[in-house]
Design brief:
MT1774/Rv1733c-like; 52% helix; Integral membrane protein; 5-stranded antiparallel beta sheet; 3 helices; alpha+beta
Length: 193
């Protein structure tokens, strides 16, 4: 029984009522539209973003390939290295690009390695060094996170716009009440008795 009473209270703007104003009807439709856009638009935004991120990560896995590279310089250990607290340092490496040419560039490698050591680096289709692609699990997690962030961003925009519109309706109601009071108030100014 309490649930029916609550539903009546929540849906009062939809029922016929002599005290219902046009602003109440507009607000009821506004709230409905905000929730529909949130539910449908948030779902669509999240799914589209997640799918697009999945495609980008799959393309990266297809385009990037690992290759063996040779360190050209020693990599100092953490105790003698300058910089932050990471166990990786920038150093020069040489590898063979897909077209067969020898390439040299700098990349992050583990500390304590000597010149001539072989390491694995990742290159793109043009033979440029790049980060390792995300594996399928990492890609799925990041895609899910990005989809959730897109849905949350849309929700923030929709609820913000709805709150702004409701604020405008409230201001209109206050102004209407003021005009009505200016019209009716003087009639109550006489004294009795």
């Amino acid at each position: 029984m309490a649930g029916a009473k609550y539903a009546k209270k929540r849906l009062w703007r939809w029922r016929s009522n002599p005290l219902r104003r046009r602003d109440d009807i507009v607000e009821a439709w506004l709230v409905l539209v905000v929730w529909l856009v949130f539910a449908v638009g948030g779902t669509v935004a999240g799914l589209v973003t997640s799918h697009a991120a999945d495609e980008v990560f799959a393309r990266q896995r297809a385009e990037r390939q690992s290759v063996r590279a040779v360190l050209l310089t020693d990599v100092p250990t953490s105790a003698t290295a300058t910089g932050g607290t990471s166990d990786r340092r920038m150093t020069s490496v040489r590898w063979t690009a897909p077209d067969g040419s020898a390439r040299t560039d700098q990349t992050l490698v583990e500390t304590g390695l000597k010149a001539g050591s072989r390491i694995t680096v990742w290159q793109d289709g043009q033979g440029r060094l790049t980060a390792a692609p995300r594996n399928t699990t990492e890609a799925a997690i990041e895609s899910g996170f990005l989809g959730t962030a897109a849905a949350a961003g849309l929700a923030g925009l929709v609820f913000g716009a709805g709150a702004g519109a409701r604020w405008g309706l409230n201001q209109h109601r206050v102004n209407e009440w003021g005009r009505e009071w200016d019209r009716v108030g003087p009639q109550w100014g006489h004294k009795t008795g």
